[in-house]
Write a structure and sequence with these properties.
Blueprint lengths: L18 H16 L3 H27 L1 H29 L7 H6 L8 H4 L11 E5 L2 E5 L19 H4 L8
Antiparallel strand pairs: 1-2
Helix pairs in contact: 1-2, 2-3
């Protein structure tokens, strides 16, 4: 005997984001083509809507949320501190500071020169590297901070002890 009852219980999987989208899509097709059941189509549609809503919220929060922004600011601080070491190592190897951060990537492909605060916005129209400028035998390095505008109060600078900064070419703010 063939079971002609639509698989409504599969609709519970629609509550799980991403998986729910695929199950929802399957339920929509089953509801339209196999069972000709409006309830199954509605349950599948709800599964798709739940996935879209959850991921929209996550991406919106990642781009504009205060907690996410503060977290990325901490990551930027850590990356800046590491970048100072890479710049100083470059000088040891080449005898001079790089003209741009991109030059660091020629000798070390793993060096991170992109500011996490800017790359999280996923905007192709803005510069996403840290701010770097070689000034003679010294240099400046900083993140533009949360507002994304250089030379404002929220800019993030590398943390280097005063004892070590004498040895380095970093111009501290």
């Amino acid at each position: 005997m063939k079971n002609n009852k639509p698989p409504y219980l599969l609709g519970l999987l629609c509550l799980i984001p991403l998986i729910g989208a695929f199950v929802g899509l399957g339920l929509i097709f089953y509801g339209i083509f196999r069972y000709k059941d409006r309830k199954l189509v509605i349950i599948g549609s709800i599964g798709l809507i739940i996935t879209v809503a959850v991921y929209s919220f996550v991406f919106y929060n990642l781009k504009y949320g205060k907690n996410a922004t503060n977290g990325f600011a901490k990551i930027s601080q850590t990356e800046l501190n590491s970048l100072v070491k890479s710049i100083e190592f470059y000088k040891l190897q080449k005898g001079t500071y790089p003209d741009s951060l991109e030059q660091l990537r020629e000798s070390d492909k793993m060096v991170l020169i992109y500011d996490p605060l800017l790359t999280r916005k996923m905007d192709n129209n803005i510069k996403t590297t840290f701010e770097y400028k070689k000034i003679g035998e010294k240099y400046t390095l900083f993140s533009v901070g949360i507002d994304g505008i250089p030379n404002t109060a929220d800019d993030i600078y590398p943390i280097v002890s005063d004892k070590d900064s004498i040895k380095f070419g970093l111009i501290k703010k």
